[in-house]
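job 3f2a | input accepted
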Amino acid sequence: YYKLIILEKKVISQNIFELDSRGFIPQLASIKDIANFILKLRKAGHISKL
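job 3f2a | predicted structure (50 res):
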């Protein structure tokens, strides 16, 4: 599996907080999609689970 770097973790955390502040419950599948998208941008593959 692939690991996220600190900056990528911060981006995901900010996204979770933003969803929460808008009244949405962050879903694990959505967070996984975001993580996979970030990894795809740097061509690092994908994560299998969070």
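job 3f2a | Residues 6-41 form one domain.
job 3f2a | closed
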